[in-house]
Write a structure and sequence with these properties.
The chain is an alpha+beta fold. It folds into three domains: 2-76, no CATH class; 93-163, no CATH class; 165-294, no CATH class. The chain is built from ten helices and nine strands. α2 packs antiparallel against α3 (143-156) and α6 (178-187) crosses α9 (236-261). The longest helix has 26 residues, at 236-261. It is globular and about 65 Å long. The chain binds flavin-adenine dinucleotide (FAD). The site of flavin-adenine dinucleotide has 12 residues, from α2.
Length: 297
C-alpha cells in the first residue's frame, strides 16, 4: 500500500498492466493518495522475482515520486498469498467435513476474485452442515448427509457452475501466451471480455458467433484505421488462431456450464456425472493440443 504526496490521475479506475508469465501488475486506488499496488503471475510458469518487478514498474512512474509505504500495526502494509486459479472441487464434502472458499477452489479462475465464492460457500456450509448434524440419527455424518452443500453451490445457487465454466479460458490463455491474449483482449467485444471475467448470473457475452465475429472485425478495423494494429505485438496469423481457439473454448465453456448446472442431487449419480465432465475436458484438451502432464486436471 503506497501513500502518494499528490492525487493520482486515476483514482476512479483500476489499472492493470501485463506482466510476463500470464501475470499482471495492478494499481487499485483506495483513495486518490492511497494506492494498493501489486502484482501476480501464474505459478505453473517460471517464477517471476516479484519485488524486483514491482520496484522496476513503480520507480518509473511520476505519481509515485516521494511515495511512502503505508504501515499497519507498526509494520509495512504488505501482503502476499498464493491462490488456486482452478475450478471448484468436484465434491466439497467428505465424512464429517465440508470445505469452502479458497480451499474449495471457488476463486474465479481468470480474475482471482474469491470473496464472493467464500461468502456463498460459507453460507451453504453453515446451513447444510447444521442440517446434517440436526438430522443425524446414527452418530455418523456421511458424504451423502452433506451432499446438499455441493448441490447448493453448483445447482441451486449456481456460483460454482459459473466459476467452473470460466476455467477453460484460463487453460486456453495459458496455451496462447501473453502476446496473443493481449491481442485477443484488444479485438474481442467488451461484452465478451466482461463475460469471461464475471461470475454474475446475468452476464453473458455476445450471443452468437456471427455477432462475435462482427465485433472483432469492428475492433480490428478501428486498430487499422488508427494505425495501431502493429501494437498487438504478434503476427496476424497467430491472432487469428487465438481467436479461433477462443471461439472453440467458448463452445466448451457453454457445454461445461450445462454439465455443472446438472450437478447430481444425489451422491450415487456423482461418478456418472464426473465421467461425462471428464469427456468434455478431453475434447477441450484435444482441441487446444494439451496432452499428458501438460493437462490441468
Ligand atoms: C493479493 C490478493 C488480492 C486479492 N484481491 C481480491 C479482490 O480484489 N477481490 C476478491 O474477490 N478476491 C481477492 N482475492 C482473493 C480473496 O482474498 C480470497 O479468495 C478470499 O479471501 C478467500 O477466502 P477464504 O475464507 O476461503 O480464505 P482466507 O481469506 O484465506 O481465510 C482463511 C483463514 O484461515 C486461517 N487459517 C489457515 N490455517 C489455519 C489453521 N490451521 N487454524 C486456524 N486458522 C487457519 C488463515 O489465517 C485465514 O485467516 C485476493 C487475494 C490476494 C492474495
Amino acid at each position: 500500500m503506497l501513500l502518494t504526496p499528490d492525487d493520482v490521475p486515476y483514482d476512479n479506475a483500476l489499472v492493470g498492466k501485463p506482466l510476463e508469465e500470464m501475470g499482471y501488475v495492478w494499481y487499485f486506488p483506495r483513495t486518490s493518495t492511497e494506492i494498493n499496488v501489486g502484482l501476480g503471475f501464474q505459478m505453473n510458469k517460471e517464477p517471476v522475482p516479484l519485488v524486483d518487478r514491482l520496484r522496476e514498474d513503480v520507480s518509473g512512474r511520476p505519481e509515485f515520486d516521494g511515495a511512502e509505504l503505508a504501515e499497519i500495526n507498526g509494520e509495512a502494509d504488505k501482503l502476499g498469498a498464493a491462490l488456486g486459479l482452478r475450478r471448484p472441487l468436484d465434491s466439497m464434502v467428505a465424512p464429517g467435513y465440508v470445505t469452502v472458499g479458497c480451499n474449495a477452489g471457488t476463486t474465479h479462475p481468470v480474475s482471482g476474485k474469491g470473496i464472493r465464492g467464500a461468502a456463498v460457500t460459507g453460507y451453504s456450509a453453515g446451513k447444510y452442515g447444521a442440517k446434517a448434524v440436526h438430522g443425524d440419527e446414527d452418530g455418523f455424518i456421511s458424504e451423502a448427509d452433506l451432499w446438499d452443500h455441493n448441490y447448493f453451490v453448483y445447482a441451486e445457487h449456481g456460483l460454482g457452475t459459473r466459476i467452473a465454466s470460466k476455467d477453460p479460458y484460463n487453460i486456453a490463455a495459458s496455451e496462447a501466451g501473453m502476446a496473443n491474449v493481449r491481442a485477443a483482449v484488444a479485438l474481442l467485444p467488451e461484452a465478451e471480455i466482461t463475460d469471461v471475467v464475471s461470475s454474475e448470473e446475468d452476464s453473458f457475452g455476445v450471443r452468437n458467433v456471427a455477432n462475435l465475429a462482427s465485433g472483432v472485425v469492428k475492433n480490428a478495423w478501428s486498430l487499422f484505421r488508427d494505425d495501431r494494429f502493429d501494437e498487438l505485438d504478434t503476427s496476424k496469423r497467430e491472432v487469428l488462431e487465438t481467436l479461433a481457439d477462443f471461439i472453440a473454448t467458448r463452445r466448451y465453456a457453454d457445454q461445461l456450464e450445462h454439465q455443472y448446472a446438472n450437478y447430481p442431487d444425489d451422491r450415487d449419480e456423482f461418478f456418472r456425472w464426473r465421467d461425462e465432465r471428464d469427456a468434455l475436458d478431453a475434447q477441450l484438451n484435444d482441441r487446444l493440443g494439451v496432452s499428458g502432464a501438460e493437462t490441468k486436471y
